[in-house]
Write a structure and sequence with these properties.
about 140 residues, Thiol Ester Dehydrase, Chain A, about 25% helix, 6-stranded antiparallel sheet
Length: about 140
């Protein structure tokens, strides 16, 4: 099975212009993939000086999509739920995504994503179902 390289996964993140617009960092990981990181500031905040839920949801959705891409599947979101456990306050420690594939089907995929800080504190958790629209890389036999 063909798998995208870390460079192709990072390129995917940056092709999603909203990630760059929100100034969310794309950071390579030792497993050959990448994660998203956010240092929340006033640009990301709601009226209560905490990161807007939409910012965190966008991070989670994009991180799960990239996790699917790491398995060479291009996907679109069918459904997504988000649970917020703690507020990500502006100027708080950086938070990052940790996405996992729970179901890797031919037509659909199911993932979860945690948003954590370096100490392991869980701020939010997302679950999503994705529709597989194709592959990033194709070999002659597929």
């Amino acid at each position: 099975m063909l798998k995208p390289t870390q460079e192709q996964i990072i390129k995917f993140f940056h092709e999603n212009s909203v990630i760059d617009y929100m100034e969310i960092d794309v950071v390579p990981t030792p497993d050959g993939e990448a994660r998203l990181e956010l240092s929340a500031d006033s640009r990301h905040a709601n009226l209560y000086s905490m990161a807007h839920g939409g910012v965190l949801t966008t991070m989670a959705d994009t991180a799960m999509g990239a996790k699917c891409l790491a398995l060479n599947k291009r996907v679109v979101t069918i459904s997504l739920t988000m649970e917020f456990m703690h507020a990500v306050m502006t100027n708080a420690p950086k938070v990052f995504t940790e996405a996992t594939v729970l179901h890797d089907g031919r037509k659909t995929m199911v993932c979860e994503c945690k948003i954590l800080d370096a100490k392991g504190k869980l701020y939010a958790k997302a679950n999503a179902t994705f529709f597989v629209i194709g592959r990033l890389l194709c070999d002659e036999n597929t």
